[in-house]
C-alpha cells in the first residue's frame, strides 16, 4: 500500500462561499476517503422560530438560506396550513408558484456560474451571473427585493402582483431565453466542459436510492423523484411541464438536469403570469389550533421538509427543518472516493451544497454518545426563552 | 498618507469571510464582481487567501464556531488591514440577536472600519460603501 496523506480543506477556503471542513485522505493523487465537518454556520434558527409568532417566523425562516429564501417559507407556510387544515386562495397559489420558479432559475444560474468558476472556466461564471441579473430584476419588480422576497405568510401571500407589471415581466423573461439557449449549447458542446465533467463523480441509481439523494442530484442518476409531480402543490398541476431525468449520474448530467430545468421553470413562470386567476390573496388566519403539520416542497436543491407543532398559542411549540443538502452530503462517499484531487473540487460542488440550510445541532462527547437528550434540550431552551421574555 | 496606505488604496484586494451568514451577502459580494456591477474597475479582486488581501469583508452573525477562527485570520492579515462589515448580521446581529450561538457583535471582536447596512445590501450599496471607505482614508470625507 502506498503512503497516505491527509489534505485538509477549510473551514475558510476559496473553493466555496460557506465555511465547512473537508478532510481528504489521498494516496498519490487518488482520494481514498473523505470526511466532512459542518457546524460553522449554525445560528439556532429552529429555536429563534419558536420564539416568534407564526407570522413573524416566516422572516426568520427566509434567512435560513439566502438562495432558497422562497423554499423554506413555502414549506413552513404549508406546514402551518396543514395544522388547521386550509386551502389557500387560487391567486395566492399562483403567486407562490411564480416566486418559487423565479428562485429556481436564479439558483440554477448561480450554481452553473460557480461550477464554471470551480473548473477554472470563468467565462461561464460571468455569462451565467450576467444572465442571473435579468431574473433578479423580474423578482425585484414582482416582490420589491432582489433576494429575501418576504412574499409568504401562513394563509396566503403578503403582496399582490399588479396586472400592469405582468407584460414587462413576460418581456424580460422572454429576453433571457435566447441567452439560456446559448448557454445550453455552450455547455452541451464545449469540449473543455466535457473533458472535466463527463464520467466524473458518478452516482449510480442504487447509490442514489441508498443514500436517499434528492432533487437534481437524484434526477441526474435516473431516479424520477420530484415533489412537484409526486404530491403536487401550488399551481404545478395546472401547468404542462416535464420532469428532467438523465441516467448517467456524473457531474455532466447534473449540469444538464439543471440547465434543462431552467427552461421548464421559464415555462411554468410564464404560464402562471399569463393565467393569474382573480380573487383574494390571503385568508387572514386569526389563530392556529393545537396540532401538528408537515409541509414539503421541491426546492432548487431537492425536497425541503418542515414540521411544525402548535399548542394553541400564537407561537410554534416545535419547528423542525430538514434541508435537501442534509441528504445529499453523504453521497460524497460514493462520488469523490476514487477520483483525483483536482476533480474533487467540482464533485464537491456538484450537489449544489448549501451548508447554512443544513446546520442543525446535536451535542455529543468524543465517543459519540449524546450528552443531551432531546427532552433536555427542549427544557434548556424553554428556560432560556422564559428568561428572555422576562427581560423584555 | 503613508506609502503603504497609498499603495493599498490603488487596488484594494478583498478577502471574504462568512461567519455564519445566510449566503445572501456573500452572493451580493460576488455579484459586484460580475459584469453588470464590475467592481474590478476600482481595482478590487477577490483574493483566495487572507495573506494576499488588504480588505476583510465580513458577513454573518459571528457564531461561536467562527469567533476564534476570525481572530486568527485577522492576525494573519498583513497590516494595514481594513475590515468592512457587510449586512445587518455583521453590523448588529440583526434578527439573530437572541440566538444562543451568536454571543457578541463583530465590532466587539475585531476593529471595523466601515459598515454597509441592508439585508442583504444591494451591490450598489456595497460599491458606494467601498468608495466611501477609500475617500475616508484619503482624507477627503
Give the SSE layout.
The complex is a heterodimer of chains A (392) and B (141).
Chain A (H helix, E strand, L loop, with lengths): L3 E6 L11 E7 L2 E8 L7 H7 L2 H9 L8 H13 L6 H29 L3 H22 L8 E2 L2 E2 L8 H24 L1 H7 L7 H6 L4 H5 L7 H4 L20 H24 L16 E9 L2 E9 L5 E7 L1 H5 L3 H4 L5 H10 L4 H4 L15 H18 L1
Helix pairs in contact in A: 1-2, 2-3, 4-5, 4-11, 5-6, 6-11
Chain B lengths: L2 H8 L3 E5 L5 H10 L21 E5 L4 H13 L5 E5 L1 H5 L21 E3 L6 H16 L3
Parallel strand pairs in B: 1-2, 2-3, 3-4
Helix pairs in contact in B: 2-5
Features:
heterodimer; A: 392 residues; alpha+beta; Cytochrome-c3 Hydrogenase, chain B; 2 domains; three-stranded antiparallel beta sheet; 49% helix; globular; B: 141 residues; alpha/beta; Rossmann fold; four-stranded parallel beta sheet; 5 helices; 4 strands
Walkthrough of the structure:
Chain A has 392 residues and is of the alpha+beta class. Chain A contains 16 helices and eight strands. In chain A, a hairpin with a 2-residue loop joins strand 4 and strand 5. The longest helix of chain A is centred in the N-terminal third of the chain and has 29 residues, at 90-118. Chain A is globular and about 65 Å long. Chain B has one domain (3-138): Rossmann fold (3-Layer(aba) Sandwich), CATH 3.40.50. Helices cover 37% and strands 13% of the residues of chain B. Chain B has a four-stranded parallel β-sheet with strand order 1-2-3-4. In chain B, helix 4 (88-92) links the parallel strand 3 and strand 4 (114-116). The longest helix of chain B is centred in the last third of the chain and has 16 residues, at 123-138. The mean pLDDT of chain B is 88. Chain A binds chain B through residues 11-12, 14, 17-19, 39-44, 47-48, 51, 59-60, 63-67, 69, 110, 113, 125-126, 129-130, 133, 146-148, 354, 356, 381, 384, 388, and chain B through 16-28, 30-31, 34-36, 48-49, 60-61, 63, 65-66, 69, 73, 95-96, 98-102, 119-120, 122.
